[in-house]
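**User:** My hope is that you can spare some time for a protein that puzzles me. I have put the entry right below:
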Amino acid sequence: MEIFKIVIDTNVIFSGLFSSRGKSYELLQLIGDENIDISISIALILEYEDVLKRNIKKLGFNKSDITNFLDYICSVASKRKIYFLWRPFLKDIKDDMVLEVAVESESKYIITHNLKDFRGVEAFGIKACSPKDFLKIKERIK
């Protein structure tokens, strides 16, 4: 079975924690799966933390819940050091941060809800796709 190398954009992390009904939540359930290799960097995990803790009331969690979730991601993810910067390549510097992790880790997919923000990543051999589309790809290849 194929190992799927992915980077998850912050908006998918937020969506998956906000609602247990969507494809973002379904994707989060795959974190730690032996066929999913999620990559992170220090900057990306700090971005996750910032967004989740700023929206803690919306999410219905406490700080400990968020810390435990992020600790779990850190325990199962491939940690990447970024030695190069592609910036500016995309419109948003935070999207460039996601792209840098994907390039460094040789990930094939960036999972995001903001597909238009990742136009052009194909030049790096990366496909930007929604959680729904990624889950379809995963099922087809499985």
Residues 4-141 form a domain with the Rossmann fold fold (CATH 3.40.50.1010). The longest strand covers residues 4-8. The radius of gyration is 14 Å.
